[in-house]
Amino acid sequence: MAEVIDGRAMAAGVLAATITRVERLKAKGIEPALAVVLVGSDPASEVYVGRKVAQCRKAGIRSVEHRLPAATGKAELLGLIDCLNRDPAIHGILIQLPLPPGLDAAEVLDRIHPLKDVDGFHPVNVGRLSTGTGGLVPCTPLGIMKLLDSVVSDYRGLNVVVIGKSNIVGKPIAMLLLEREATVTVTHIETRDLADVARKADIIVAAAGAPHLVRGFWVKPGAIVIDVGISRIGAADGSTKLVGDCAAHELDHAGAVTLVPGGVGPMTIACLLENTAQAAEMSAE
Ligand code: GUN
């Protein structure tokens, strides 16, 4: 059986470490605060925002929710971000994606002050990541690195295949692994012979959003498989269930795997709290 890397247990560890940092900040008179902005009422986004706010409470981080109607105009949203940028009592700003049609995510994310950009999506932070010069790192890739670090001590020369080239996961995780001197291949929807490419990997990071895309025969014996996908599919009995990008039941021969749920998901939120503590620490420097 493959080792299961327990995302829930690791997330609890990140939360505990963050609580310590939050307490240290509070002792210095700084109460870390995260502004969460949700535009519209996308059901999945509602669930994610609810979880983020609940976890903030656990960490002792103040959260301030801004729920705006789907018809909110660009000027109003940018005005809110300007306000949050100027507010010294707010340390992190999170704009939940996707935004409703008509709002350009790139333009909105560009407006967030890079030091408050706890999602790590601002071009300054993207540039810092790609040049290895610090900055706030996107939460999901940060969480994936912590999961991988629990089973890998030296990445030099390892073949990593990233499936999916998104700005949120694929590209930033490739940058983090390149910094560790892994040999990184980023694949995407147009990649040819993906199974053959994947079979050469020591580590697979599957972030395509395609249920059960990665089959057992794609995975070399002993390889590590990180499953970032999360899709809801219908089960035979008419109910629905959450599944990842990997056919987990075909991965007994892998070295270590993460499961869905209970793998990457909990780490993403824990790393958001960690980033918020970091942003609050930077505000004190
Ligand atoms: N929507 C899906 N993933 C994310 C994320 O990591 N951050 C934000 N803000 N929105 C998302």
From TrEMBL:
Domain of life: Bacteria
Any single GO CC term annotated in Swiss-Prot or TrEMBL for this entry: cytosol
CDD domains named in the record: NAD_bind_m-THF_DH_Cyclohyd
Coiled-coil stretches noted in the UniProt entry, renumbered to this chain: none
Pfam families in the cross-refs: THF_DHG_CYH, THF_DHG_CYH_C
Keyword list, A-Z: Amino-acid biosynthesis, Histidine biosynthesis, Hydrolase, Methionine biosynthesis, Multifunctional enzyme, NADP, One-carbon metabolism, Oxidoreductase, Purine biosynthesis
The protein's Enzyme Commission number: 1.5.1.5, 3.5.4.9
Binding residues annotated for NADP(+), in chain numbering: 164-166, 189, 230
Pathway assignment: One-carbon metabolism; tetrahydrofolate interconversion
Residue span, Tetrahydrofolate dehydrogenase/cyclohydrolase catalytic domain: 5-119
Chemical reaction(s) catalysed: (6R)-5,10-methenyltetrahydrofolate + H2O = (6R)-10-formyltetrahydrofolate + H(+); (6R)-5,10-methylene-5,6,7,8-tetrahydrofolate + NADP(+) = (6R)-5,10-methenyltetrahydrofolate + NADPH
Domain Tetrahydrofolate dehydrogenase/cyclohydrolase NAD(P)-binding: 138-282
PANTHER family recorded: C-1-TETRAHYDROFOLATE SYNTHASE, CYTOPLASMIC (PTHR48099:SF5), C-1-TETRAHYDROFOLATE SYNTHASE, CYTOPLASMIC-RELATED (PTHR48099)
Family statement drawn from the similarity comment of this UniProt entry: Belongs to the tetrahydrofolate dehydrogenase/cyclohydrolase family.
Protein known as: Bifunctional protein FolD
Organism encoding this protein: Novosphingobium flavum
Gene name of this polypeptide: folD
